[in-house]
Design a protein that fits this description.
With 140 residues, this protein is α/β, with parallel strands linked by helices. The chain has two domains: 44 residues, no CATH class; 85 residues, no CATH class. It is 31% helix and 20% strand. It is globular, with a radius of gyration of 18 Å. It binds zinc ion. The site of zinc ion has 7 residues, from loops.
């Protein structure tokens, strides 16, 4: 089951539940998705806020150029600066957001491999990033 944040052309926000990404595309293609407020069919999917697991630290790739590495680090720095640090409550918080028990937002923290597997089984997407320890705290 996938839950998508949708919006119509008049910026009415609502949630749609679909069995899969393909199911969503098919319904959208057939014009079966309708805004519950204005009944518009001009529906688009909003990007969902990323949930980042920072504990899956792997050795950084050594075959990337310094330039790419610098861009990746810069991107990570931005993600880290714009997400809320929930630390070891990561899995719990990702689950609460998924089930609408907590506000939708970008979070970061640490989760064990088994916690990540459990989240994935529940259809909760988690992005794992090998983030250098120095970047886990945003620079002031
Ligand atoms: Zn609408």
């Amino acid at each position: 089951m996938k839950v998508y944040n949708l919006s119509c052309e008049h910026d009415h926000r609502f949630e749609g539940w679909f069995s899969s990404e393909g199911d969503f595309s098919a319904q959208l293609g057939k014009g079966l998705i309708q805004c519950p407020v204005c009944e518009s069919h001009g529906i688009r999917k909003l990007p969902s806020a990323p949930r980042l697991n920072l504990s899956a630290s792997q050795a950084p790739q050594t075959d990337v150029s310094t330039q790419i590495q610098a861009e990746v680090i810069e991107m990570m720095r931005k993600i880290v600066a714009n997400s809320e640090d929930v630390g070891e409550r990561f899995a719990e918080e990702a689950r609460r957001i998924h089930y609408n028990e907590a506000p939708e937002r970008a979070i970061r923290g640490t989760a064990s491999k088994s916690e990540c597997t459990a989240l994935a089984e529940e259809g909760i997407e988690v992005m794992s990033l090998p983030v250098p320890a120095a970047l886990k705290q945003p620079l002031q």
